[in-house]
Amino acid sequence: MLLLTACPLCGEGKGSFQSVIRRGPWSLVRCPRCRLVFLNPRDPDDRLKDRYRNNLRSPAGYYDRSAAVDIEVFRERLEAIERCVPPGKLLDVGASVGTFMEEAQVRDWSVVGLEPNPRAAADARRRGLDVREGFFGRSWSKTWVGGLLDAVVMNDVLEHAPDPTDFLSAAFSLLRPGGVAVVNTPNFDSPLARLFQVKPEEHILYFTKESLTAAVLRAGGRVLSLEARGRPRNFAALAGGETLGFLGARAASCVRCLGLDSTANAVLTRFFHDELFLLSARA
Question: What predicted TM-score, i.e. pTM, was given to this entire model?
Answer without folding.
Answer: 0.90
